[in-house]
Batch of 3 targets.
Target 1
Amino acid sequence: MIVFENVTKKFGSSTTALDDISVEIKQGEFVFLVGSSGAGKSTLLRILTKEVSPSSGKVLVNHKDIIKIKTSEVPHLRRNVGMVFQDFKLLDDLTVFENVALTLEVLGKTSEEITKEVERTLKLVEIWDRRNLFPRQLSGGEAQRTAIARAIVGKPEVLLADEPTGDLDPQTAWGVIQLLNEINSWGTTVLMATHNAEIVNTLKRRVIVLKKGKITKDTKEGKYDI
Amino acid sequence: MLNTYIKFTKRNIRRTPFQALAASMIMFFTFFALLIFLILAAGSQAVLRYYESKPQVISFFKDGTTAQDVTAIQNALSQDARVMSVKFISKEEALEIYRERNKNDPTLLELVTANILPASLEVSTTDPDELAPIAEILKREPVVSEVIVPEDVVATLNSATTVIRVVGGATVVFLIIFATLVIVLITGFKIRTRRNEIEIMRLVGASPSFIRTPFILEGISYGLFGAFLSWVFVYALLWYFTPLLNNYMGEVKLLPVSPIFMVALLGSSVIIAIIIGGLGSLGAVRRYLRI
């Protein structure tokens, strides 16, 4: 599904964000990326959306080397890779419904398809009753659920979550994690960068530990141990 | 997909109504000036053509000129190959013409009788260049008091038309450049303020053209709005001032303006609007929207 082969990413001549990383993530896996700030977690995720390109190495998504794909193919890659952020990145002047619909509008879906799919997804993440509210009217948990809905409404095969619980209280964070877990149970590969030890330890999923751009541990049912 | 682009364009306009208003107003003034210039240019050209198409010398006879004198001159001119037609206007006919032209002003009609109007001879030539030689022949006739050659009118109109073309054209070119730059600036500003949204659109898989197109359509819609509104405004002004202008223009009948001409003006404005709005926003997209 996702393969990193000897991937190195340098920013300038002095900063090495990823240092000769090699890792394989199979379809349907739930993987935690842990490590201290600056360890390279976000860089690894951003390589998968081709926001940044590695300095060397190979990155395969569904057997396709995404480093070599043309610029015109990048949107297609991103439609297959949903992304959730710590700060939600919702558009303030769009309602919950419109924020989620944006993904499908980009895909060129008809308004009937959009209405149907957005309704299905918002019900799935349990914020259908908040569909006409604007982001500023939502709680943190609701905002993150909206962001998750936006990421999964296009039915991507991979969901990347960059510290999605970072700004949430423990109870709300758990709600979000349960939602990600449920999405994973439908077959979506979930790759989540986090600092939340309790979540990692409780879920007992695969844990990849990054330290100064290198993978120091890769445990199948791992714990938060950086 | 076009529906989606239009939806996004409308959304963009709604979000920044004051910028949209500013852009539309600039476009309105640009097209207002453009239309006025085009109408003036076309009008002056039509007046010029009117006089050019009537190569005519008018010679006025002294009082007491006999019919034999007039016939002799008429016959002599009819023999000349350069002359197309010769028409005698008697004092009575001159009075009729005067009455017709001043039928709305009874004061002027009361004061004038056939006696104070001179009889005249209208001589048309096959070529406008022959007007001056024919006028010279007529001036030599002892019974002729005055000869009017429209050459001078044509020359004056010609220089007026040139001035309108040069000054109007320069103003319009300046306004078009100014309007295009305004569209560049407003679109550029919008791109900067919506950086976050553009980033999100990219991350959910929007293609560069999907992100760019609404900005370009937005620029075009400002142009179209300004062009259409100014066209309506100019048409209304022309319609309102038609009676006044008709009186002023005298025998040159240019008004009311042909609807075909106005539709052609609208068509030209629409094309120019698309070019200004499209180029301005495309310039901004290329300059500020790096995807």
Target 2
Amino acid sequence: MTNDHHLLEVDHLKTYFYTFEGVAKAVDDVSLFMDEGETLGLVGESGCGKSVTAQSIIRLIPEPPGKIVQGTINFDNTNLLELDLKQLRKFRGNRISMIFQEPMTSLNPVFTIGNQISEMFMLHKKLNKKESWERAIEALKAVQIPAPEKRINEYPHQLSGGMRQRVMIAMALSCDPEILIADEPTTALDVTIQAQIIDLMMHLKEDFNAAIMLITHDLGVIAEIAQRVIVMYAGKVVEEGKTKDIFEEPKHPYTKGLLQSVPKLGERSRKERKKLEEIKGIVPSLYELTAGCSFFPRCPEALPICREHIPKLTTIGEFHKVSCWLYSDL
Amino acid sequence: MKSLLTIEDLEVHFPIKEGLLSRIAGYVYAVNGVSLTVEKGEAIGLVGESGCGKTTTGLAVLRLVEPSGGSVIFKEKNVSRMGKHELRAMKKDMQIIFQDPYSSLNPRMTVNQIIGDPMDIHKVYQGSEKDDRIAYLLNKVGLTPEQGRRYPHEFSGGQRQRIGIARALALDPEFIIADEPVSALDVSIQAQIINLLIDLQNDFGLSYMIIAHDLAVVEHLCDRIAVMYLGSIMELASYKDIYLNPLHPYTKALLSAIPVPDTSVKKHRIILKGDVPSPINLPSGCPFHSRCAYRLEICDKEKPPLRDIGGDHYVACFLY
């Protein structure tokens, strides 16, 4: 094994959706990697392709209308895109698992949470019913659900939003995955509950030594827990780097705009009210992307070349890459 | 000088009906004794987590839900006792902007009709005056008069919120309640709407009640902030005091729980245990006592009153 061997490597991934209105290039030539035990943040606004990227990795793209048209996803010397469903099950839920934004709709309402968690052990670890049930109680204990022996017989509707998300995490971590993909895990929750869940995820990450891919639009959550950040816009990676570099020395005009457009807690109280920097215009429709850089119509620093040619992701520092003509030559 | 709006001991309880005869089985205690004033030209913020009663408070002020108790005095008139006609006349001066710009605009009406409708109902700005007024408002909120002939579905979320704001401004109100005005919008669009709200406040001398769960947005927009929990105000103070000198244990926990998009800020996070209790079975005493780390013996027996501890900083907590 060489040094540049990554736990997960996504290479030139393209996931398109074929609909009546045309082809939506939801993920358009995205490459990324994850290392063992790291927390990678995937950030962007709605429609930027961050969730579709994650769903492509565990092959949850509904086909049709969606289709992965190009690319490879390498995990443990296997290209996940070449596996059939049976082989895929060895990975999905077992070595790579996922938690979703809405814990109400991602749990089955007609089964108890005990049924749903113990199923994981029966399927992936081939344990019998009794052992699985005991492991399920342990899993609930690990996510700090009080009275797990009692709670395990409850149905999802009997639990609060935060509790449901804990159950989702218990399920996702039940098989000691190497990668946990968390798609907006706290967006549906209140801030004090969000703090509980983030705190829990960070503790469990250390216990389980799983790498976490955290997908969110909340820059605050990313700044607090991610080690590395990938910023996406209209299906493409526009910037990636260490969290500190992205937040302190953002390079891409979109990243800069995004960071300056959010009011920061306490800033007005400590200093004074500054007018927020706006990113003018709107997020482009994925059906009508321009020939050049998709951020060109909204970019305050656009060059003539940006209209015609798509910039390549260029390395500008250690782990720091940016896709912008301001930082690269033709 | 009299306040523009005075809310006193406002209570809203929703009955839970059961069975064939709709027997009342209990109540959801959404708002429990909220008192608040809004001065002319002031922006006041109501913050709290879901279910804390902030939206219900806003709706009860406008009588979009009927209060169960207490009074709302707007421009020296008691809103809670108004008849239908009086209430309608009052709404000329008090308007609301909703959270969801998708469901709050009628899809079968053009933007001109949406903004012109309140003028027709109240019989102000008629004929060519109305067209001029609509064009003026569209300009004010950053749209063009040509866009007035289009339907809501032709606009993006941010533009729709602008239309909702233009509609609220149609009758030249003094006071606007904005219920989560930016939370349905993308991050890069939120700044546009926040800036617009501030510009409009300066241009028209508006007073705002901003209802939001995002404390950073509220800090940016509001002069004074009320922190709510389970239908009661826990702390009420200027934005500076809330952020630099929070006193109530809940305010402290809430502020510490918010992730800040700045890697240079290191902070101590207070993790609250458990969930918000149900508003159907309110806890005895202080609504926050079951999750409070500083609770005293008295806290589960008596509800602490909201008291001024000096400098217009109000706290409902026995620690002070």
Target 3
Amino acid sequence: MDITKRVEIDDVVIRFSGDSGDGMQLTGTLFADTAALLGDGVSTFPDYPAEIRAPQGTVSGVSGFQVHVGSGVVRTPGDYCDVLIAMNPAALRANAKWAKKGATVIVDADEFNEKTVQRAGFSTIDPFEELGLKDSNVIFAPITSLTKESLKDSGLDNKVIVRSKNMFALGICYFIYDHPFDFTFKYFKNKFRKKPEFIEPNKKVLVAGYNYAANTHAHANTYKIVSQKKEKGTYRSISGNQATAWGLIAAAEKANLPLFCGSYPITPATNILEELAIHKNLNVKTLQVEDEIAGICTAIGAAFAGNFAVTTTSGPGLSLKSEALGLAVMTELPLVVVDVQRGGPSTGLPTKTEQSDLSQALYGRNGECPVVVIAASTPSNCFHYAFHAGKIAMEHMTPVILLTDGFIANGSEPWKIPAMKDYPSICPPIVHEGDTDYKPYRRDELRLARRWALPETKGLEHRIGGLEKDFITGEASHDPVNHQKMVDIRAAKVARVQDFIPDQEIIGDADGDLLVVGWGGTFGHLLSAVDDLQNEGKKISLAHFNYINPLPKNTGEIFKSFRKIVVCELNLGQFADYLRTEFYNVRFEQCNKVQGLPFTVAELKEKFKQLLK
Amino acid sequence: MEYTQQDFKSSMEIKWCPGCGDYAVYAAVQRALPIVAKELNYTRERFTFVSGIGCSSRFPYYVNCFGFHGIHGRASAISTGVKVANPRLSVWQITGDGDALAIGGNHFIHAIRRNIDINILLFNNQIYGLTKGQYSPTSKLGMITKTSPYGTVEHPFNPGELIIGARGTFFARSLDVEIKLSTEIMTEAAKHDGTSVMEMLVNCVIFNDKAHGYISDRENREDRTIVLHHGQPMIFGKNRDKGLVLDRDNMQLKVVEIGRDGITENDILVHNAENQDTGIHMMLAGMKMPEMPVALGIIRNVKDRTYDDNVRDQLEEVKAKAKVHCVDDLLHSGATWEVE
């Protein structure tokens, strides 16, 4: 008789944790992808250390991956988890704080002994007592030994066998959450295409974990998430960095130009370069160059020569690129600079998220040097904003900085695949042969953009560069009045982009007691908090910005109808300060966090409730 | 179409100091471009000049081609981007000893390492001119400048050694006053597939006058320099009576006199610019006065795959095999699922 009860639930948060070599990122991703295929809403949050392989069994080497699966739209990876998988005592110690009261904690019993507990930094020999997990439902599963047992006849060496123990843990979760195997089996088949001897062992361990959980009734209940009906269409799972890369490729395709990416590896932006490098078939040229400066300078050269040029980086890299960004402003060439923000200053927290590059993006250059600044706010909408960053750069002949952050860059979610026919065309102002009256700095009245004359176009030979340009001819000019005119027109050109971006939306009523203002990757958390409070009857709304410079036209208007306004961001108040310079007569409260972590919905709600008092 | 020098002159007024060595290099470029255009069948719009910052980096403004005046030190990176974006362009990079060897050293050596098909004119006047007279990475040890009032305490680079050390595929050297030689070098550099570096020893009349005076001095030039020609014996001197041999005991080059101690022309080394091995090219580039003549002409000119060709070929290869042909294909590639 099966004594396990199946319970229907709305959502669950699972946190996988182990040594950075334990494969927790993959385990979490496979769980998330299967859930997505089942039609559940999914949001993920990888929380990994900067070291690739920190000393085993120590807290500094712990890698985590949180998955939030739900029946409806899932907006955040969840504040706290319902299930914590800890592959060793260090993982338990590092992650116990993220477990809800009464959470299920699954540990590898084989990894818990006096020595490992000590190594993880516990002061007693009872880590569960020490961490206050006595109320939790702790499952001591002998994961390592059962993995070894199930593969004892496989002929694989011990090291390889132990490495697949993450699949045993995944199998346990598949049992508890009633997940089918097919997607994961397919993944093994594809992943081990060239090493087919690994396919069966991985399957075997996954099934062994599942059977172990079923046979031992490891968990009193199993759970089924009943998916709500979603919008019809074809879906896929996508991470922010992948979506950014694809959005850039899409912009190049719409503009009918080759995509050129000059970049230098930097966490957490590197995947964009890696992803672009795969897709050479789509007319993508990627150059991994000698440094960040070469990244942007090769891109500027490519833009001059007529490619859609981009460079991808994170905060410290943006610092290195700032002089060249000024050159792109002066030469008025299209360029997209992607900054996947991480904890700063300096090397800071390379694998952690933050929004502290906003001021750098807005102001971090010599001279009066405006650029368009856009921020994506979810993993999947990185596609949309990367596309539009490209469209604005090419049509307005200006550098555009696209800000994402470690949280949305590495996070993933299901995405209804758009059709390229629904995306707008991109028409850069390229000058064609036969134009006998081309003046490099003459502009169109609508956008104030100069025209783009590409080398190899007969009769359009001209010279541009970093020296101040003559207002019409583009020749070097030191004329004082001309300089003033040029500074003014460069500012006006960027401001003019306002006419081409959508109005700022308000989620909720257009008036009320509290307007929550956010930008970029905090969207999911802010929306969840605002949503909850709206359901509690509070007069609270959300204005979440994607267009930062210029701001949408109606921005000033929307601030007028709220009793209080609070600007929430993962820095000390950079967007709030920016808004204060633009709207000096509006009072902005602040809600800030700089811990290398996203907001939690709980802390946001608490803050909003205080403000609503 | 045949071009004349006039076709490559822009209307911009040239602002180098009177007597500056850059004028002579400019004259050589003006002579070389019509020849290059004719021999390689290039039209003017294919020539693109890219520069960094410094006196010589004003050069692109004075040439009636596509031109890009960049920022300090970054010319090699910018020209790399130009060439990869449009490999059909004939890219000419103008840079100086400060621009290429100090602030831009990193980009410079990596361009050479990649062997991207660009032609680099390195104007070496051993001084910072535009900032009015500070020492550069090629200034001689002990040189007194505004930032080294008691003499520099650092060793200079010999650009040739740096370039050949990075396995550069083309290195040539000329003097500003040797306009004919410079023109020949530029024409060959344009024909060379890969990074061609031409070190132009130029005079700065204001801050480092006669920097190269010891070898450029008309009276002694032929005795103090040797012009190398591929396939020709390494003979020099006013009377064509001196030559280079390999001193096998010390494994270094040595000057000998033809007709003395039984030395005949047959004993003199024959220059092979196309030798892949860098050894002898390194020795030639490193020769210093007063013991040895300074080598001019094309010291190294070897064939190798170029970066831009590799980029293009890989692109074509991947395209030919690809199953994904457009963004719609890409979006639907991999695991997807339907919601009915």
